[in-house]
Input
Amino acid sequence: MTLNLTGTGAQTLSGNMGTGTPTISNLVINKSGGTVTLGSAFTLRGSTTKTFTLTAGTFDAATYLLTATTPTFTAGTLRVGGSTWATNYSFAVTEPAAGTIEYYAAGAQTVNNVNTYGGNLILSGSGAKTLGASMVTIGGGLTLSGTATTSLAANLAITGNLNIGDGTTLTAGAFTLGVTGTTTVGAGTSGTLSVTSATGTKTFTGAVTINSGGAITESAAATLSFGSDVTITGTLTESGAAVVGIAGNLTNNGTYTASTGLHTFSGATKTLSGSATITIPTATFTGNYTNSGTLTCATLLTVTGGAVVLTNNGIITATTALSGTGGLTQGATGVLYIGGTSGITTLTATTAGNTVNYNAAGSQTVVDVSYNNLTVSGSGTKTWTLAANRTAGGILTVGAGAGLTTAGNFTLGVTGATSVLGTLALGGTSAKTFTGDVTISGIWNETGIAAYSFAGSLTNNGSTFTANTGIHTFSGTSKSLSGSTITSIGSVTVSGTYTNTGTLTVGTALDGATGTLTNSGTLNIGGTCSIGSTSGGLSNSGTTAISGAGAISTLIAGFTNTGTINLNGSGTIAGITNNASGIVNLNSSGAITAFNNATATSVLNISTTPASNDYYTDCHSFRKQC
Amino acid sequence: MNLLKTKLFQIFNLCVLILLVSATSLRATTYYTNANGAPETLANWWTVNNGTGTHPANFTTAGDVFIIQSPNVMTMAAAWTVTGTVTINSGATLARGSVALTCGGLDISGTMTNGNGTSSTVNGNVTGTGILTTGGTVRVFNVTGNWTFSGTANNA
Output
């Protein structure tokens, strides 16, 4: 007789059917839902076959024995509540792909080898579930739930998914572990995949997700191969010099402790991301990756392959070395810290917004490319030898304690602001252009003779300012020259409009036919001055000292004074309009022409004998003091 | 006013009567056999176990219980479908033959014999400690409830 248990609800199968006469010879479980649970030992009896068939639903042997000789298992779940398979079933099964076998007892169980696991295996309940030594494949997935623990007893290949639930532990010792499907560790609180031996590669072909509280922990340096994405919200801890390969995305929102071994990123168009720093001592990229998180490589960051590009939209720190035949491209939000050598073949850092920071505690060589924001920091001198015209399209920052030394006879342009807190030594004979404001708190040293152009303000609070003899052109509009340190430049051409509130010393020539320079600080002119010869001019409300033999020639009324002008040199000075409260002191042997002492409070003090052809107009106050 | 009170009293009594009738009709009823016969015949079932009372109006009222009393032998000549449960008392026999039995529950404390062909479908539990005898080649029990029958089953 065949007993066919169907329906959707829970069912109990029990009864002492006697032992002498054949009774129920076939038991069929075909349920669209629910579980048939043995309530007692149940023996199928028949003269020929005693068939147990599970086609759908769940059959739970509980702690009893189902005795049959011919099992047919096409789908559904067989549960094992006894300590072994044989405790519950007198037969072995070939598990189908649609089948599940679950060992669920509250306590230790042995997962026997008697079955062929073509479907899923669930280890639940509690206690240690001991895998059979010849159990090498699971055709479906392996799931651990409850507080079950288990350890590999042989190399194991899981075709489906590996799920290590909260409270469970899978220990992978000296055996290979392969998971073709996805791997999920933890479900929010705990769950551990423990790798305890360096022997046996652990291969995860599908995506690996380590949820909050979950952990993959190596206590020995086994090779880890991740064929797809790795998402860390819990903890991934590698050991020693374990070699790690990742072919997918790496997202770290948890805790990632990488080994010192080589980490190879081989995916195509993949990403590094996450809110937590990805710290990998040695990483090699053989596929195109984009970083939007924080990647720190303390030992070596390599991009290998002529067509391989690591794009940085986050933060990358190459502490010791950045190398490889590939390229690193800075995205708009990328920040790249180069802490050591940088021998990478292609560095692309011109995208607006990005920053490259050479931050070693010691000397470094700056990769000779154009940049957007370029920062040197740490300490030591960073040497940049230009082999072509270069630009820093953003901000140039020389940090305190660090130095940037440029060489090479090619132009250098800085589009944004320039901030010098350390030492900036500019070599080469080609033009240097600073479009943004320049602020000096450290040392400015022009070591090559070249033309310099400034389109912004110049603030000099540095300890040293050394200009070369080339022409320094100030072309900005409504800009300033300021600072507590004397800015001494041989040749200055003002083609824009500038206000000097600091101390500007022009040793050779102050020019600019259409420029305007307003001095409310201290202006020292040691050579010629022709500023404002066409338009604009020079106005002084501070102190202007004119020395040397140079001739000062501006338009009449192009040099207005409401401050103090000290004429200390021997040249001819023409074109001063001395306005209210203005004082002009003629202290030496120079000559004054085209002088307009314009108001009643304008003062001309002469402490030497003027030349005979000097003339003064509207002299409201005139004192000859010698 | 007195007329209104009288009308309300009559309406109240009518409601009570309706409720009593409804409750009686919804109550599960137990029916008994009193002689050998075909179980699928309504007239072979009585509300009192001595062959008196009333017969069931049908076999499809949920909750009804049909008890085959000892020593009655009820032999099915045609398919018998019972929404409620069937109980075979000790000493009684249900001879299913080769026609289909469908019931909401089955207690085998007596003897149930099954011939060749068709199947028994129990949309509930199978219980009892009696004798289940099967014969022929097609002998299928479809059970959606618990199988806790712990008597003796024999293949004839």
